[in-house]
Specification:
By secondary structure, the chain is an alpha/beta fold. The protein has one domain: TIM Barrel (Alpha-Beta Barrel), CATH 3.20.20. Helix 3 packs parallel to helix 12 and helix 5 runs parallel beside helix 7.
């Protein structure tokens, strides 16, 4: 029986562990990518800081001890407030292009130990794979995700490069097929050091879907701000391509050609079984504003349930099938 008041519990398909306060300095890049610094991502933490009780959420932070208390238990509390039963987490293994060569690494080991092992009924995960690493290391990263019981792997294109690169990426996809893992590919935007916008275009997913028709592909962010129309076409055209609508929050959703009501109605009509909800937590907003927004907008109850729950259950095989 549900512990929540809503008629059904939500599956959040997109979350980023690693930015918890404890030992954050030991996770490469996590400070610069979130709380401390002058990069774009530091600004999208303002709402998280406000929700955590920071009296001056717009004041730049300069020291670790200034970071609000943020832990795995913070995740659980935020999820419970929104009726989110399961959160899909993404490990990150990123190295931006020269000359910046900026590294961000949230390891599979950290995600499993701190989240999945502690709350196995609340979290599942995908592993991070870095296309810039050696072939041997890339394959090991895929196999490590499988060995830890993860559902798939993620390619972070803004740092990793073109996702349709036959030399760097196709061996990753071949091994994923052998191990029955799906692939998640970033097609949104990014503000971290050294990222390249040219790598994020969802147009490149068309190549991958054609060359690997049996590989299940999740298109992260559905080309937000970048090329959402091609992203939608990918899902319509290819049986093996799915998408999320991360970040699904009220401010972004009002922008033209992003997640406004007309865009969601197109999804309801054309791809109702191939799209699902994600927050991008802890970036931007807590869970509740995003979930509440979806529940209130004028879409059919059937599609909302697919968006918030049923499609993700099938894709991530959370029902054991």
């Amino acid at each position: 029986m549900s512990v929540f008041k809503e008629e059904y519990e939500v599956i959040d398909s997109h979350g980023h562990p690693g930015f918890e306060k404890k030992d954050i300095e030991k996770r490469p890049g996590c400070l610069e990518a979130s709380w401390i610094g002058e990069e774009f991502e530091n600004r999208v933490m303002y709402d998280a800081r406000l929700a955590l009780g920071d009296a001056e959420p717009f004041k730049p932070l300069t020291r670790v001890d200034e970071i609000p208390d943020f832990s795995v238990e913070t995740w659980i509390k935020s999820m419970d407030q929104a009726g989110v039963r399961v959160h899909v987490l993404q490990s990150l293994n990123c190295l931006s292009a020269p000359p910046r060569n900026w590294r961000l690494h949230v390891s599979n080991e950290y995600v499993k130990k701190e989240f999945i092992d502690k709350y196995p009924d609340r979290f599942v995960a995908v592993g991070g794979v870095n296309p810039r690493d050696s072939l041997e290391d890339r394959i090991k990263q895929v196999e490590d995700a499988k060995s830890k019981g993860f559902k798939g792997i993620k390619i972070h294109t803004p740092t990793g490069g073109y996702p349709n690169d036959p030399e760097k990426c196709y061996p990753i996809y071949e091994r994923c097929l052998e191990l029955d893992l799906h692939v998640e590919i970033h097609t949104g935007t990014e503000g971290w050091p050294g990222v390249r916008l040219k790598y994020m275009d969802p147009l490149f997913i068309d190549d991958i879907a054609n060359d690997f028709p049996k590989l299940r592909i999740l298109q992260l962010h559905c080309g937000s701000f970048f090329n959402p129309r091609i992203a939608l076409w990918n899902v319509m055209r290819h049986k093996n391509v799915f998408t999320d609508i991360t970040p699904a929050h009220p401010t972004i959703m009002q922008l033209k050609y992003h997640w406004d009501i007309e865009h969601l109605r197109v999804m309801e009509y054309l791809i109702p079984d191939k799209v699902f909800f994600g927050t991008d937590f802890p970036f931007v907003f807590p869970h509740k504003p995003s979930v509440d927004h979806i529940r209130k907008i004028p879409l059919t109850a059937e599609f909302k349930k697919k968006l918030l729950r049923e499609n993700a259950i099938r894709f991530y095989r959370l029902d054991g099938k």
